[in-house]
Amino acid sequence: MTPAPSNRVLTATSHWRPTAALGRALVVGSIALAVALVVGDPSLVVIAAPFVLLVALSLVHRPTREPRLDSHLDHVVLHEGQGTTARLAMADVDDVEFVTRVAGRPPYVALRPSGGYVGRLLAEGVPDVEISPRRWGRRFLGEEYVALYTPWAGFRYGPIALGGQQVRVLPVTAPYDSRAEVPQPLGLVGAHRSRRPGSGTELAGIRSFQAGDRLRRINWRVSLRTGALHVVTTRAEEDTGVLLVVDALADHGSSGGIDGAASSLDLTVRAAAAIAEHHVRTGDRVALRVVGRGGEQVGYGAGARHLRMIQDRLATIQVGEVAEGAGADDGVLRLGVTGGAVVIVMSPMLAESIGTVAATLTRRGVTVLVIDTLPPDARPPGLDGVDPGLVDLAWRMRRIERSVVLDRLAMLGCPVVAWRGPGTVDDVMRRLARRAQQPRVVVR
Amino acid sequence: MIPLVAAMPTSQLVLRALVLLGPVVALLATGPAGHWPPWWAVVAVLGLAGAFAAMPDSPVGAGLLLVVLVWWTIALGDDIQPAAMVAAAALLVAHLAAQVASYGPATQPVAVATLRLWGLRAVVLLATVPATWAAARLLRGQPEPAGVWILATTAAVAATVAATVTLGDRREA
Q1: How far is A99 from chain B (nearest CA, A)?
Q2: Mean pLDDT of A404-433
């Protein structure tokens, strides 16, 4: 969670106005007294007496100073499910007895108190509103209306609208870890076992001593038994490049936030965040390429700041078709895949372009893994004026075409797995790593 | 409407029930003195009280309380009955309950401390009712002091001017 800057200026202003209750008491009290005097009815004086006293007490507490208000959030960057507090800053509130706050309710946001309504006597402290975004994305939080009341509720200040703040809600990082090797480690220093010998920790073999070998590599037990110096050889450990391709062409299924059902884009973004975090922690270089209207991308990099950059880009994904000419060449996407990189495509695989690019890369010998993020219960949205039966038929046909694409990708050697959280890609990565040891024919 | 009522916290429901019942009790308070209101008047007040309970911040409340005052003027004339204290208490409780209910939206719960404070204030305000009633009983039948009407009219005009100045400059500000 990233805290918000604290040096805010109190700007929002309004004016004190008599409340409806003061007007009501004034009307009832004055008219009752007037009628009592005119018609000589003492009962009306008895009824009017408490109202007259109430009006008098309200006017005695007439406000003299204009309060200044502002609200701010404690944090401007959150993960899904995390919470922050919207605090109300007030100045010149000597005339204020009661504070009412009514927080706005943007979608995918939980509030406490429930509903976002809170009112309290100022003597008990300024009431806070707790806000928790339930879905990743860029959200406008903390917007609210505030009203202040004088003692005896004779005058009200506001309600005035206090602007909220843009908050980046990063996708939740599901507990994800993988012990599988990446298929083609081809970097400098990392944690993956390489095919070439080097100064790692994984045993590669024992051979006769050669000039230039380090003395600490000598295996004395074997050397004494054979009568000649032998050294232990190890495999190098290297990092690898991981390119995450996120399909943001459309969002299928309904999203209930972190507590409810997940749409295809929810699964995609959360899977990308989890895989990125895992590989960054193991020292790999990770890049991101979003296929969608925004075309967000992050180059290869490593480290915590790079991970935050990837999460930020994931939180600001714009759903929609790729703009013409942006990252696409005659309908074929350009992903900028570098040699030795592992490409992980996260997609519901309903767009032809994604299937095409996965097949093309696989044919060229690039290690491609497709993570299927289409929710099993995804349904097309109802369209006005369109026969629901026709929509269902079209959806079934689209799913059949999709299954054909997935089968063809599998035949090409591109594994497709459904995202199931931790352990989703372990088995597939191990198989890809074993396959990478074997010779194969690729199309150039 | 029903979903809104279902979403209301208990405190709001209790306050709005007081707003609903207060004017009706005040209207029916003339009954023990032999002046029961006609059924259509009760229905009309009940309808207005329902609107007042639904919209405690609206001008309906002032109109409703005036309707009750009119009935009291018609029913009892210059007679002074102990039931006037009941009517005063019922109207004041309805007024204060509407005030507290309108502190925020209908689904905003009202804190116990707030209810306690306004309960104490209601007691303070209601203390004027028996005192006024006793004074009215004592002064009933006494000869009018010279100039009392001039004094009363002057006081009423001064109070009206003061209230106008107080409220008017706030609206213009």
Answers
A1: 9
A2: 79
**Which pLDDT tens digit goes with each residue over A56-104?**
889 888 888 888 888 888 888 888 888 888 888 888 888 899 999 998 8
Q: State the average pLDDT for chain A.
A: 81
Decide if A130 contacts A152 (C-beta within 8 A): no
Q: Contact, A297 vs A313, CB < 8 A?
A: yes
Q: Is the pTM of this model over 0.95?
A: no
A154 or A40: whose pLDDT is higher?
A: A154
Question: Which A residues 274-303 touch B at CB under 8 Å?
Answer: none
Q: Which two tokens stand for residue A3?
A: 């805290």
Q: Which chain A residues are Cβ-neighbours of B131 within 8 angstroms?
A: 49
Instruction: Summarize pLDDT for A96-155 with one digit per residue, the tens.
Output: 999 999 988 888 888 888 888 889 998 888 888 898 989 988 888 888 899 999 999 999
Question: How many angstroms separate the CA of residue A34 from the nearest CA in chain B?
Answer: 8
What interhelical angle do B10-28 and B83-101 show, nearest 10?
Answer: 150
Domain ranges of chain A: 2-17+63-170, 194-235, 241-436
Which among B66, B125, B152 is the nearest to A28, CB-wise? B66
Q: Provide the b/e sequence for B11-46 (b: ≥16 CB within 10 Å).
A: bbeebbebbbbbbbbbbbbbeeeebebeeebeeebe
The mean per-residue pLDDT over the stretch A28-50 comes to 84
Residues from chain B contacting residue A150 (CB–CB below 8 Å): none
Average pLDDT for B105-110:
88
pLDDT for A329 beyond 60: no
CA distance B106 to chain A (A): 10
User: Looking at chain B, how many residues does it have?
Assistant: 173
Identify the CATH number of the domain defined by range A241-436: 3.40.50
* Yes or no, beta carbons of A15 and B167 under 8 Å apart: no
Considering the four listed CATH numbers 2.60.120.200, 2.50.20.10, 2.60.40.10, 2.70.98.40, the one that applies to the domain covering A2-17+63-170 is 2.60.40.10
Inter-chain touch A124–B111, beta carbons under 8 Å: yes
Best B27, B57, B69 residue to mutate vs chain A (most A CBs within 10 Å): B69
**Cβ partners under 8 Å of residue A434, min gap 6:** none
Structural domain spans, chain B = 2-142, 147-173
